Amino acid sequence: MAIIQVNHLKKSYGDREVISDVSFRIEDGECVALLGPNGAGKTTIIKMLLDITKPTGGQILFQGERHDRMRQHIGYLPQHPTFYSWMTGKELLEYMGELSGIDKKHLEQRMDELLDLVGLSREKDKQIGTYSGGMKQRLGIAQALIHRPKLLIMDEPVSAMDPLGRRNMMELLKVIKLETTILFSTHILHDAEELCDNILILNQGKLLVNDSIAQVTVHHQQPVFIIQAPRVKEWVPLLANNPIVESIDQSGTAAKIRVTNIDQGRDWLLDQINQMRLPVQKFELVQESLEDIFLRMVK
């Protein structure tokens, strides 16, 4: 059974529709990334899943039931978690555990497990105000997991971290996904490729993609020729109107040319190079990365 089933979800503010007829499902045990540029509607969808914001239309089901009755089964890490700075990390987890109705015996054991999991056992008695940004994010994950939720939702969990912090967080999420269903929003495509089973690509409130990463590559990847030559800037405008050319991105002496057909595109480009007597330094066929596909879709 799906953990979350979203059917024809809509959200409007006055006359402005910010989420338009979005449908998707998340199966038990999956890790799903919600991708989109700033303003795409990612946070709005998360707030509706959490029942913080009410949808204008559509339906959200949690394991087949109305999701507003299932809050106790969802853990949440906001993009910028805010804690009482005077509390210690352990005190915060104890407070959240008590709010969740966990008995004292099991709470002590759960706190120790989570502090060890997120690497904060040595800092558990320090005030949160002394924690670094990365430590606060890890504490935020611990508090989101304190009640053993069936679904963990995270909004841009690594966006403010340095490279080392991001790497540590990704390794932590790999462990968590073994036991918990995860939905997280991000604009870092590499993280989605590394961690997730499925991706949702959202742009201007519309769901463009809902598929596994492998299937997104199969269905949406386009061949790209990279050509480098001293006079490529003069040559590129002459190619733009041919129907075999999907798009051209030119920077400096290099051009990325997307074509609709590999064989026809290669032969045609080589013929054009020969006609123009272009002194080519590089002619390479590559396949689009997930980031390339994403950028093309939301452009």
From TrEMBL:
CDD domains: ABC_DR_subfamily_A (cd03230). Keywords: ATP-binding, Nucleotide-binding, Transport. It holds the Pfam family DrrA1-3_C. InterPro entries: AAA+_ATPase (IPR003593), ABC_transporter-like_ATP-bd (IPR003439), ABC_transporter-like_CS (IPR017871), DrrA1/2-like_C (IPR025302), P-loop_NTPase (IPR027417). GO terms for molecular function: ATP binding; ATP hydrolysis activity. Residues 4-229 form the ABC transporter domain. Belongs to the ABC transporter superfamily. This is ABC transporter ATP-binding protein. The lineage of its organism: Bacteria, Bacillati, Bacillota, Bacilli, Bacillales.
